[in-house]
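Fold this complex.
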Amino acid sequence: MQTDSSFTFVLFGGTGDLSMRKILPALFEAHRAGGMLADSGKIVAVARHVADRSEYLQWVNEHVKPHVSKNGVDEAAWASFLTRIEFAKIDLGNPDDFVLLRDAVKDLPGIRVFYLATGPSLFVPICRALASVGLNENARIVLEKPLGYDLKSSNAINDAVGEIFAEEQIYRIDHYLGKEPVQNLLALRFGNALFEPLWRREWVESIQITIAEELGVEARGDFYDNTGALRDMVQNHLLQLLSIVAMEPPHSMDSDSVRDEKLRVLRALKPINPLDIGKVAVRGQYHSGVIRGNAVPAYATEPGVKQNSTTETFVALKVEIENWRWAGVPFFLRTGKRLADRVAEIVVNFRPVPHSALGASALRAGANRLVIRLQPNETIRLYCLAKQPGEGMNLASVHLDLAFDQFFREGQMEAYQRLLLDVINGRLALFVRRDEQEAAWRWVEPILNEWKASNKPPKPYASGTWGPAAASAMLAQHGTCWLEEEN
Ligand code: BG6
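Structure:
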């Protein structure tokens, strides 16, 4: 991907965790690869507690370098990357400092990108301060999740930012949309004639989408305790994956065609009836347990977590889509921390054949199933039935595997790298549009409200398991179970 789009990339929260782990390493990778970033492009890091550029570069060397390039750092590329970095000492609470920022970027080249890697409470003050010195004109703004806490607070941020930046200037990040396998899902569905005719209620019995993590809340107990898994993972990543799995074929891959189709899915989600919540939603919280041989503590004892917290670290949901293609097909979503394995995957369970001439063993062997493993080890696995060798007609379930790293040995790109390049090059398709975000909040809010009103604690589960038993019971009612295979 060659580019001549020059840019000035202003990074608010320049010494934050996200800048350290994701944003600066992704920019470095794009720089190292060559040809992806215009030579003249600059990065202006904004921070308050750093004296000047040389102190900032020292911080970058100490904190960012360990996060780049798994196979060792290319020292020459690293040294030339540092020459792209400028620094602005700005106190975000002081609007006058933005005059300094304007002066710092005045003569820098290309399109201006303002990346807000800060808490959401700073989004609106920063946008207003940028506008006060005219820096919003012809610029792009990148907003990190969480964007608000519920529909009302997300609307308040979007309204205020929308007074300063037009929708085409706003890039709302959901990093799952930048993952290679999620892109591949579009390729699988819309580049192959094979799957699309079967991708509907007549042939699909149920769909599962899982994002399971082994990690706990790490150092983010305080943030997480006010957020919970429904806001942290379902409202954004899981509903985005669901909308890509279920959307109609877009007429092209331009940003609004894709986003229009995703929006139609989000708007077609069957609203959750508060009286049914016990049947279609399970929430859990991890207790202590063992993961890969190591004892791990309970959520309740993690630093930053309030005493007797009822925040959920696990959610499982049964979701229905009220449209012609999917009516009656259950979509089961689940996500959780401290589960038995780190895995993100989509499982499409097809219906059994309408009549089996092959006898009882065919029925016992099960039906076709397509498993799209997003991480780790991106794979697509298609389960089929085959005759077991030997006498008689005994069928067994076998699988066809497509392991991406065997076909494509090079060229993999981290989500943040792809998304940052898209911002610099003005491609909006992989960013969440305001109406999508609103539709997602509108759908999750009754669940949040009901959980709050009921005041019941989440169901406990031991760390290192697959969550509360109720999540399995929910699927058992539909005659199915979660697919839990070894990695
Ligand atoms: C983030 C959540 O958006 O996604 C985290 O805030 C979560 O809680 C992370 O751990 C998971 O992302 P990934 O790419 O590691 O699956």
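The chain has 16 helices and 16 strands.
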